[in-house]
Amino acid sequence: MTQNNDDHRRMRLFRLLRGRDRERQRQRRNLVTGLLLVMLTFMGFAAFPYGDLAYATMGCGMGFGWPIMVKGNPNLVQRFDNPPKPWLAGHRGLDLQASSGTELFSPSSGILTFSGQVGGKNVLTIDHGDGISTTYEPATTMLPVGTTLRKGESFGRVDGHSDHCDGNCLHWGLRQGKRQYRNPEHAVRPQRIVLKPVDDNS
């Protein structure tokens, strides 16, 4: 009888120690995960300069498509170059190689909110929600303003006048709010890092 009691106490002690050890391991894993999250957040902010800071805060999973359909990725005539201050000169969008008449496709679902001329340039604007909008020039459409668009749906053509893209390219811009311009290439090619939650039963 005494032997059975001793065995029972040893078994209880063993389970208690094993439980404490597993708890310490779980706490260490959670600490490491937390430190990784802090490091990745810092690296995300450090990796995005002024022009792209929003992607570190609003997430990188936008999943936009290209507004023109070509085999592979479209050729970039001129890349995004946001100036350090909003009032300085720069290139607030991408110039994609495209000839007049090239069909345009909505990179994400949205609503056509503008079709007309701005400073003599033919411009189309799509509102994608959450303060995100995209612009296209030179571009025209037969659709009325207010048309709801699905991702990949045709909405217009490269056509009309631009101050630098007449006949050979499409200027594609992306804005957050009214004045913050972002790099559309990052919306098409997001970098996303996912950390899996710790499983307490592992």
Please outline what is shown here:
The chain is α+β, with helices and mostly antiparallel strands and 202 residues long. It has helices at 2-47, 53-58, 184-188; strands at residues 76-78, 94-97, 103-105, 110-118, 121-129, 132-137, 139-140, 148-149, 154-158, 169-176, 180-182. Helix content is 28%, strand content 27%.
Commentary on this structure:
- The chain has helices at residues 2-47, 53-58, 184-188, and strands spanning 76-78, 94-97, 103-105, 110-118, 121-129, 132-137, 139-140, 148-149, 154-158, 169-176, 180-182.
- With 202 residues, it is an alpha+beta fold.
- Strands 1, 2, 4, 5, 6, 8, 10 and 11 form an eight-stranded antiparallel sheet that branches. A three-stranded antiparallel sheet has the order 3-9-7, with no helix packed on it.
- The longest helix is centred in the first third of the chain and has 46 residues, at 2-47.
- The chain is elongated.
- Mean pLDDT is 77; it is low at 44-61.
Q: What form results from the Cα inertia axes?
A: elongated
Order of secondary-structure elements: HHEEEEEEEEEEEH
DSSP helix fraction: 25-40%
Q: What's the main sheet like?
A: 8 strands, antiparallel
Q: What is the helix tally?
A: 3
Per DSSP, what share of the residues sits in E-state strands of 2 or more residues?
A: 25-35%
Rg, rounded, reads 27 Å
